[in-house]
Amino acid sequence: MAEIIDILLSTSFWAAVIRIASPLIFATLGELICERAGVLNLGIEGIMVAGAFAGWMTVYSGGGLWTGVAIAMAAGMLFGLLHGTLTVPFSLSQHVVGLGITLLATSATYFAYRLALPEVDTPPRIEAFERSAIPFLSDLPVVGHALFTQTPLTYLAFALVVVVSLVLYRTPLGLALRAAGESPSAVAAQGLSVTGIRMGAVIVGSGLMAVGGAFLTMSAFNSFFFEMVNGRGWICIALVVFGAWMPGKALLGAVLFGIFDGLQIRLQQTELGADVPYQVFLMMPFLLSILALVVMSRRASVPAALMVTFNKGER
Amino acid sequence: MSDEQRAQDVVLRLDGITKRFGALTANDAVSLTLHRGEVVALLGENGAGKTTLMNILFGHYTADEGSVELFGQPLPPGNPRAALAAGVGMVHQHFTLADNLSVMENILLGTRPLWKIGFDRAAARARIVQLARDFGLAVVPEHRVGNLSVGERQRVEILKALYRDARILILDEPTAVLTPQETDALFATLRKMVAQGLSVVFISHKLHEVMAISSRVAVLRHGKLVGEVATSQTDRRQLADLMVGAEVSPPELRPASPGPALLTLKAVSTADHGNAPGLKALDLALHAGQITGLAGVSGNGQSALADLIGGLERPLSGALVLHGETARQWSPRAAMAAGIARIPEDRHKTGTIADFNLTENAILERYAQAPFAHRGWMDWRAARDFAARVIERYDVRCPGPETRIRLLSGGNMQKLILGRAMEDAPRIILANQPVRGLDIGAISFVHGELLAARDRGAAILLISEDLDEIMALSDVIHVIYEGRLSPAFARGTASASDLGGWMAGHGFGGGAHAA
User: What residues in chain B have their Cβ under 8 A from chain A's Cβ atoms?
Assistant: First the structure.
């Protein structure tokens, strides 16, 4: 017990929590935008892989860091365009298309990796984003250093939570987007294009997922491995539900997951870790996430038209 | 007003509109004009093509032939945005509101360019409140639409149109879902609009409402315009004849000859579901050859009783006696096996499967029994024959038994449900709101079938919120109130106001209503 308290009081733990949460925040926001418009995007896992590779490869080939982020985003948007085209105007099953995109994006990425680096055993590292401390704020005890000595991508993730909230709740665009996920016929009755809004949401949302993936290679591991996304995309799907489709609550969920994950890594190194198989620790954040999901999502209101296709002129 | 002035006053001109859905011609060369400051009623039975015509005007459908002119300008087809911009507002029969958004959000949706950021919420709110006051449409902008009553939702829909400066308002069956008081309030609103120079197209099949609110009536039948008359120069009789194409007479009523009780409920109680009360130690007997009417304000346990008899709900206590034997297991299957035919309250939700075709829907309740199945295999020929028989005998207007049922109008859907329930000559019939939303032709057909079943010796429970319907058809009337049942009133022994008193809870004694 004392060990847990020690861990909870250490600055490095909280810094890790934020680092673990950051990619989840990007991808969760991306998924949230898609779902708020009425499209479930199960391509998230594969799109994160593609984003991770695209950003890393750009920097490895001599591109700038922010160029890498932009390229990753563009790659994600491309898969978003594919997903959106198949699910929105063509009304194909969102489950099947999403899983298909995940398989496609993952395999295409590994293929591209092998093409680019045919004879490499250990993936090369890149000069990734540096941590930068924000003056004054980073001097606050415990949490200050953890929160405000991070890479620019982390700051961007947190800023995006605010931006997405503002857009969703304070702009006509956000209203139209939410309405498209609640009652597409209401949107169409106002002369707006449900197809346009949903396509846009899926494309932008997929772009954010890819940036979430790029965070892993450009701000955390500084290199690209197979299996590195490792189910984070699926966690984000759960976080959207956990967050009741609200950006602020989703952020809370991402941080909570970060705490579980950070805790299990550190617990493995305690005496307890010697007795218990490490796989148990690896399971912990997922188990706790499921528990949290069960508790939190009771009252959540799903967008009423999530996964409801809409075609104009049909009776 | 001279003819020339009238011509200048034209705000809307539909010219030779034709629209086909597959083999079905929903509109056949329909032409119609609308003037400033008038209410034109578009009258017709279900499936006559009223809604289709207005959806073409509004751009939801594209006409196969014909043109639309608004305020002297041709309207580009298939573009709701153009219709909105030209000042047309439409209140659909099935509201186009997002439940999880607030009233204000629903009204504001699509009223501003999507990319604009700055916004004066207070001014928008003030405008909504002002419009609501001017036209008598009380709503609270912050309320969540999902929590509103049907009447309130309709007000939001009208406000949506007014907020966009609509000059022409199209109301599709606006009163189908309203209480009489709400209907009066709606009419008051419409009169205020017309007084301010707006024009209204009022789609309906209710003759007395058309007579009350419109200045001109256009009658559609089978997609064709069959008549256009000034309201002051016509009467309900003539309109009904135009609408149905034949003279309508009320079903003939023969004296009842009640037999033994086929279904008896003895002190049955069921669970409450949220706001919907369950039954409270209810006693009821349904006799052969008799229609038992159940009156009551919506939400007083009608659903609980219907679910119980239909097998969807099990009694918590008390007994259900069928043909003299107490039922032990109770389920929808047991109910069907006991010969209970059901006409469900919501034909869309529980009565049919929208994307199944007519054949599949016709055998929904008995798909696993002969003649539709033999040793676990479907006999589709028998099913199609059955569906064809129902379509033929119950006049279900459709392209054929392979049509998906979602393409049918409500009246035709209901005829199919009625047909599949009645084809088997059931002994017990549960008719829950059997004519809700139907036109007079279909209503008289359904009522005629129910009376015929009664004369044949069936025990019928008729649940309706329409007291006139209950009083016209029932041999015995009960009133349900908060899950409890009034004594039985034989035909003619209770007046509408007597029953109204029971419906308001008078006579049920203290207890539940004391607070």
Answer: 21, 59-62, 78-85, 90, 92, 94, 96-101, 105-106, 108-117, 119, 160, 406-407
For residues B345 and B433, the answer to whether their CB atoms sit within 8 Å is yes
Burial of B392 (0-12, 13-18, 19+ CB in 10 A): exposed
User: How far, rounded to the nearest angstrom, does the alpha carbon of residue B87 sit from its chain's CA centroid?
Assistant: 28
Helix axes A2-9, A11-36, angle to 10 degrees: 70
Partners of B481 in beta bridges: B484
B79-117 residue pLDDT tens: 888 888 899 998 988 888 998 899 999 999 988 888 877
Nearest CA to B71 among B52, B90, B85, B50?
B85
State whether residue A175 is helix, strand or coil: helix
- What tokens appear for A88 in the block? 């929105």
Do strands B199-204 and B39-44 pair parallel, antiparallel, or not at all (unpaired)? parallel
Which of the residues B46, B51, B60, B109 would you substitute to probe the A interface, choosing the one with the greatest number of A C-beta atoms within 10 Å? B109
3-class DSSP assignment, residue A143: helix
Query: Are B408 and B398 contacting, i.e. CB atoms less than 8 angstroms apart?
Result: yes
- Determine the residue among A165, A183, A192, A199 to mutate to test chain B binding: the one whose Cβ has the most chain B Cβ atoms within 10 Å: A183
β strands within B441-511, DSSP E: 459-463, 476-481, 484-485, 489-490
Whether the link from the prior residue into A152 is cis, omega within 30° of 0, is: no
Residues of A in contact with B102 (CB under 8 A): none
**Per this entry, what is the length of chain B?**
515
Contact flag A313-B83 (C-beta cutoff 8 Å): no
Q: What is the DSSP letter of B15?
A: E
In chain B, what residues touch A188 (CB-CB under 8 Å)?
Answer: 60, 80, 96
- Identify the three-state secondary structure at position B2: coil
Are the Cβ atoms of A191 and B83 closer than 8 angstroms? yes
Average pLDDT of the residues in A154-169: 95
ipTM comes to 0.82
Residues in CB range of A90: below 8 A, 6 or more apart: none
DSSP state of B257: -
Report residue B280 as tokens: 């409270």
**Average pLDDT by consecutive 10-residue portion of chain B (515 residues)?**
66 92 84 93 83 87 91 88 89 87 92 80 92 91 88 92 93 79 89 93 87 93 89 87 69 82 93 83 94 87 91 90 88 88 86 90 86 88 93 89 87 90 90 82 86 93 86 92 92 84 77 39
d(CA B227, CA B220): 7
Residue A299 clears pLDDT 80, i.e. is over it = no
What domains can you pick out in chain B, each with its CATH number?
Answer: 3-244 (3.40.50.300), 261-339+426-503 (3.40.50.300)
Helix/strand/coil (H/E/C) assignment for every residue in A54-119: HHHHHHHCCCCHHHHHHHHHHHHHHHHHHHHHHHCCCCCCHHHHHHHHHHHHHHHHHHHHHHHCCC
Burial class (CB in 10 A: 0-12, 13-18, 19+), A79: buried
Which residue, among B100, B144, B162, would best test binding to A if mutated, counting the most A CBs under 10 Å from its CB? B100
Q: What is the pTM of this model?
A: 0.76
How many Å apart are CA A87 and CA A77, to the nearest integer? Answer: 15
